[in-house]
């Protein structure tokens, strides 16, 4: 059965961050996900508390959250693979754990980052950081996610296969709670065969996100058979949330979605 969560970092952006959980609830949803909602990896405790209280007061469950990803408006896409930012990522993991334990979140997206010239060192750093993050969330059933991205040429994870290589390497080291974030929009835009990804890697998918293409708009505004792919994923055993991670300035950005999927 389709269960959708709203990504409050890309939707409802006309509202202040703290007002979005209540708006998500008013739209009939009981679940939300966010990119890292703070400017720093380890923000002040008062900022963290304000964000958590907004969700709690709205009665909205936090189902997924990104680790700190650097300065995304200026092109950064994660710090996981960057050696000079290991301490920053470690501090972020500690904040993430406290927030997750308070809010019951169990899925955490670790954007890989741009590796720079020394790719071997970047890969080594990523493995160390992902191993540490996975260990930190394992005690309460958390899963670290790896997401292929589009529109960032230097980002090294562009297809599901790219992410699976990293996941397999971690699994060989005994790390079991790192999985694929299958954003059907990014995979399709990058040329992945989405039905094949679902068929071949259903057991490795830890979270699903959707947007239509072209345009990254709401389902039905583009050409992707998103409902068909969701049905295929569910038939293959996926029973998690489907994150709505699309762009919309419509008065009702959820008009396309039936009430019982919220």
Write the layout of secondary structure elements.
Elements: E1 4-7, H1 20-26, E2 31-34, H2 45-58, E3 61-66, H3 86-103, E4 107-109, H4 119-138, E5 143-146, H5 160-172, E6 178-183, H6 184-189, H7 194-201, E7 205-210, H8 226-235, E8 242-244
Parallel strand pairs: 1-2, 1-8, 2-3, 3-4, 4-5, 5-6, 6-7, 7-8
How would you characterize this protein structure?
The protein has one domain (4-261): TIM Barrel, CATH 3.20.20. 37% of the residues lie in helices and 14% in strands. The model has no long low-confidence stretch (mean pLDDT 97). The longest helix is centred in the middle third of the chain and has 20 residues, at 119-138. With 262 residues, it is of the alpha/beta class. The protein starts with a strand and ends in an 18-residue tail after the last strand. It contains eight helices and eight strands, in the order βαβαβαβαβαβααβαβ. Helix 2 (45-58) packs parallel to helix 3 (86-103). Strands 1-2-3-4-5-6-7-8 form an eight-stranded parallel barrel. It has helices at 20-26, 45-58, 86-103, 119-138, 160-172, 184-189, 194-201, 226-235, and strands spanning 4-7, 31-34, 61-66, 107-109, 143-146, 178-183, 205-210, 242-244.
Q: What is the C-alpha radius of gyration, as a whole number of Å?
A: 17 Å
CATH class annotation? Alpha Beta
SSE sequence, one letter per element: EHEHEHEHEHEHHEHE
Q: Identify low-pLDDT runs.
A: none
Portion in helices: 25-40%
Shape: globular
Terminal Cα separation, in Å?
A: 11 Å
Throw out a few tags for this protein:
262 residues; alpha/beta; TIM Barrel; eight-stranded parallel barrel
